[in-house]
Write a structure and sequence with these properties.
globular, alpha/beta, about 100 residues, 6 strands
Length: about 100
């Protein structure tokens, strides 16, 4: 489900290997990323380039990840398709996620 890359820097790139981040898989995605955080990785970039659909459950999973990181790290999203970016605008999550 996830592709993890640990370059020599302290940023971890997470690339979901799914086209949809929805109720069908959001809990598994959330737990996988929370495990990465619990392993000591607190600067994350989530690359959503392969994701074409994110529903409210998927957004909720991303919010849970953001809450877990809190003030001890950073979370950035990249590679949003137009459709996913539009979902973030409609829900105003584009103001929450950099």
């Amino acid at each position: 489900m996830l592709k993890l890359e640990h370059p020599t820097t302290t940023v971890t790139l997470i690339a979901p290997q799914v086209e949809e981040l929805t109720a069908a898989n959001a809990a598994r995605f959330r737990q996988s990323v929370l495990d990465v955080i619990d392993d000591g990785n607190s600067r994350l970039v989530i690359d959503l380039a392969k994701v074409i659909t994110v529903d409210s459950t998927g957004i909720g999973a991303l919010v849970a990840v953001l809450k877990r990181i809190g003030l001890r790290g950073d979370l950035a999203l990249c590679g949003l398709t137009d459709r996913v970016a539009r979902n973030f605008q409609v829900t105003r999550m584009d103001r929450v996620f950099p």
